[in-house]
Amino acid sequence: MRNFEIPGRSLVMSRRGMAATSHPAATLTAVNVLQRGGNAIDAAVAACAVQCVVEPGSTGIGGDCFALLSRGGTDDIIGYNGAGRAPAAATAEWYKAQGYSEIPRQSPHAVTIPGAVDAWATLVRDHGTRDFGELLQPAIELARDGYVISPRVAADWANQEALLRGNKDTARIFLPGDRVPAAGTVHRQPELATTLALIAEHGPDAFYRGPAATDMLECLQALGGLHTLDDFKSAKGDYVSPIKTKFRGYEVFECPPSGQGVIALMILNILAGFEAKGDPLSADRLHVEIEATRLAYSIRDAVLADPAQVDVPIEWLLSEKLAEQLRSQIDLKRALEAPPAYMPPNHRDTVYITVVDKERNAVSFINSLFHPFGSGLVSPKTGILLHNRGQSFVLEPGHPNAIAPGKRPLHTIIPGILVRDGKVQMPFGVMGGHYQAMGHAHLMTKIIDFGLDLQTAIALPRLFPKPGTDQVEVEGTMPPDTRMELERRGFKLVPPSWAIGGAQAIWIDWNTGALYGGSDHRKDGCALGW
Q1: Closest CA to 112 of 431, 415, 406
Q2: Considering only CA atoms, which of 355, 376, 375, 354 is closest in space to residue 366?
C-alpha cells in the first residue's frame, strides 16, 4: 500500500485498455486511438509519431525503432528490428585512412539510414487495424499548429544548446529567436509537419525514395557523408525471433542482437543465483546488481554486433555455465578491481511506449535518436533530425562491432515483455541508452524478487556502473547508509549528469481483468487507461 503522505504517483488502473509513455500528449493520443477502435499497435505508432514532435531531443523519424508484440496476450511473441544500417561505402579501413579514431557525433558518419518510418508502416500494415496516414494526423497537427514544451523536455533542450548551435538549420528550428525555448513555450515545426503529411499520403516511400530522401542525402553528402539513394531505397527492417530466459517462474522476452536485450537476460541469469531478501536498496543487493551489470557489459562490448554479419554466440551468452562463471567472481566484501576496457558513448535519451488493448494485444515499443537531439543535424527542407547511432560502431578492423557496409551497430534500445503461464504479464521498457539492460534487470528483480508494485519499483533510486570506467553513477535519493557502505567496499560513486533513465510498464491481471499502469517521475509522461 502506498503511503499517501509521501509525494509520488499511484498506479493507474483500468479495464478496457491502457497506454504509458514519457509524454502526456503521446499517452492521450494512444488512448484516443484505442477509444476509436484502434488496437495496441495502432495506438503505439500514433503515440510515437507524436513524441517525435513533442520530444524532439529524445526521438524522431530520423531514428530507429524496435518492438515486441503479443496478439491476444499469448506467449507467441513477435519481434521487430527497425535499426538502420551503415552506408554501403562505409568500412573501418576507410575511416582509418581518413584519420578517424572514432566517429564524431555531429557528423554525417554518425548517421545510419533511419529505420523508424519503415518499421512503423510495416507493423501497422501487418498488425494494425487503422490506416497508417490516419495515425500520423495527431503528430502532423502538433508540428504544424504548435505544442507546449514540457518541463523535462525543456531541461533536455537547454542541456544541448551548444550542439544545436553547431548546425545552422538545427539552430533555426530548435533555437527560435536565437535562444533555447523555455518550458511553457509554444513551438512549431512546419517543415516536419509537411514531411509527415507526405508520409501519411504516400507511405514510407516518401521518406526513403521521394523528396525527403533527396533532402537528407544532400544534407549528408554536403558534409562528407557516404550515403547514397540506393542506401535509402534498400532500407528495410526485419521480423526477428525473440530471445528469453527464465527467472523465478517467469519468462522474460527481449529482442535478439543487434540490440542489447541479451545483456538484460544475462544479468537476470546472474542474479538468479543470489537470494533476494530484506531491503531492495540494501548495500548487499545493490553490490550484486552492480557487479552482475559490470560483468555482463564487459562481455557485451566484446561480442555483441549485427548477427547478419557476425556470429553472436547467443546460446553461450544465455547459458547457466557462463552465468555461474560470472557469478563466482562477485565478492560481497569488496568491489571487483578490473572494469571493462571498452568505453561506449554515455547513456542518453530514447522514448518507450507500452499499450495493451481490450483484446489484450500487448505492445512493447521503443524509438530513439540515441543522444539528445541525435547528431544535431537537420535535413533543412524536411525538418528531419538525424540520429547519431553510428557512434556505436567501433573503427577497429576485425572487431565484431566494426563498421561495415550495410551493417547495423550495437543497439542500446530494447523493449521487453514478461510472461507467466503462457500469458503476457507485463510489457515494459526502461529508457536511458546503455543503462537499459541494467534497467530491465533492476526493474524485474524489484517486482519479482521483492514484490513491489510496478510504480513503486519504477520510483526507486537508481545506480549504474558506467561501462569502461570504474565509476558508479548514483542518484541523490539513494539512502546515505547504502552509499557509505558501497563506498567502503571500494565502489567509486559519482552523481549522474541527469536522472537515470525512465520507465513505463503495464501489468495485466488475468484473474480480475484489470490493467495496472506505471510511468516514471523522471519524465513528463504518464499512464492512462479507460
Answers
A1: 406
A2: 354
Q: Which set of grid coordinates corresponds to residue 133?
A: 496516414
Residues 6 or more apart from 477 whose CB is under 8 A from it?
461
Burial 292-323 (b: 16+ CB within 10 A, else e): bbbbbbbbbbebbbbbebbebeeeebbeeebb
* pLDDT tens-digit map of 276-297: 989 999 999 999 999 999 999 9
User: Cα separations (Å) of 294 from 256, 320, 329?
Assistant: 20, 18, 11
Q: How far apart are CA 244 and CA 482, in angstroms?
A: 32
Work out the angle between the directed axes of helices 320-327 and 261-271 (0-180°, nearest 10): 60
**Residues 302, 312: Cα–Cα separation, whole Å:** 10
462 contacts: CB under 8 Å, gap ≥ 6: 435, 439, 442, 474, 475, 500, 501
User: CA-CA distance, 207 to 203, in Å (whole number)?
Assistant: 8
Q: Are 186 and 148 in contact (CB under 8 A)?
A: yes
All three cell numbers of 119 = 518499421
Question: Which position has the grid cell 514544451?
Answer: 149
Distance CA 13, CA 507 (A): 9
Q: What angle do CA 526, 385, 373 make, to 5 degrees?
A: 55
Single out the catalytic residue among 195, 350, 445, 482. Answer: 350
Give per-residue pLDDT as tens, 455-509: 999 999 999 999 888 899 999 999 999 999 999 999 999 999 889 999 999 999 9
What is the chain's length? 530
- Who's near 197: CB < 8 A, 6+ residues apart? 136, 140
pLDDT tens digit sequence for 357-372: 999 999 999 999 999 9
Residue 157 cell numbers, joined: 533542450
DSSP class of residue 494? Answer: E
DSSP 125-179: HHH-SS-HHHHTHHHHHHHHH-EEPPHHHHHHHHHTHHHHTTSHHHHHHHSGGGS
Give this prediction's pTM.
Answer: 0.95
Task: Decide if 350 is catalytic.
Answer: yes
At 176, list the grid cell: 527560435
Quote the CA–CA distance of 515 and 501 in Å, as a whole number. Answer: 24
Specify the pLDDT at position 339.
53
Q: Which residues face 250 on adjacent strands?
A: 247
**Cβ-count burial 82-119 (b if 16+ within 10 Å, e if not):** bbbbbbbebbbeebeeeeeeebebbbbbbbbbbbbbbb
Q: State the Cα–Cα distance between residues 134 and 129, nearest whole angstrom.
A: 11
486: burial class by Cβ within 10 Å (0-12, 13-18, 19+)?
buried
